[in-house]
């Protein structure tokens, strides 16, 4: 997992923190790039991770807003294999960022709507604010979860609210199983090498550059070339063959969350199409 601060501070001091510089463009290319540029609006900073305010395609303005992050970013610690957190009280706070990456306010949760590290690595917090209240108070809209699976080659941006830094690359492919220590995740997104995410980027939304929708949540990477150990995930194919890709980072797809979000933004694991693990 991309732990929040272990090794991250050194990496940022060495590589440079802040917003990654945009690639220069001219003429029609510049206009197109401006339309599709991903910024920080709707992302949040947690005490130890990154996240984003998200909505399902069917979410309503008056629904309590949801914050997406990783299961390993839960304040209660890493859920064990097979463990699912559902509708648990929380008082977690989040710093809401605007497009420039400036903190504009504090959002608060009243529940962990869902959290797990089994099959995926995801947490969803329910806020005390509605989408309409966030938009009217801060002028910021939630990011929409894409209901479709991303394709190989999709241009993506990982937007970290913790570091106020973006990483741009593409979907290189998918790991049938991604194994890291005691945990195993299914159908994980593998980035091309340009997305060199670091600790603290855990929970960052992975945004499709063309649509602006969230297609995955950033969660881990192989740091040292080790095989299937903590901070060194390995890929396992359908036949059990193991591949280690040192320096490559990964995310968990989020389209599977959409069918589980019911009326009032309640997580309903019995809804048609919902395949998230149950307690």
Would you summarize the structure shown here?
With 279 residues, this protein is mainly beta. The protein has helices at residues 8-15, 27-36, 131-138; strands at 43-45, 50-55, 64-69, 84-89, 93-97, 103-116, 122-130, 143-144, 155-160, 165-180, 183-191, 205-208, 214-221, 234-236, 242-243, 249-253.
Describe this entry's structure for a reader:
The chain is built from 3 helices and 16 strands. It is mostly beta strands and 279 residues long. The strands form 2 sheets. The protein has a 6-stranded antiparallel barrel. A 6-stranded antiparallel beta barrel has the order 9-10-11-16-13-12. A hairpin with a 5-residue loop joins β5 (93-97) and β6. The longest helix has 10 residues, at 27-36. The relative contact order is 0.20.
Strand tally:
16
User: Helix fraction?
Assistant: under 10%
* Major pleated sheet: 6 strands, antiparallel, barrel
Overall 3D geometry? globular
Across the major sheet, the strand order is 1-2-3-7-6-5
Order of helices and strands: HHEEEEEEEHEEEEEEEEE
Q: Would you identify the regions where 5 or more consecutive residues have pLDDT less than 50?
A: 5-35
Number of helices: 3
Instruction: State mean pLDDT (0 to 100 scale).
Output: 90
Distance between the termini: 22 Å
How large is the share of residues in beta strands? 35-45%
Radius of gyration: 17 Å
Structural class: mainly beta
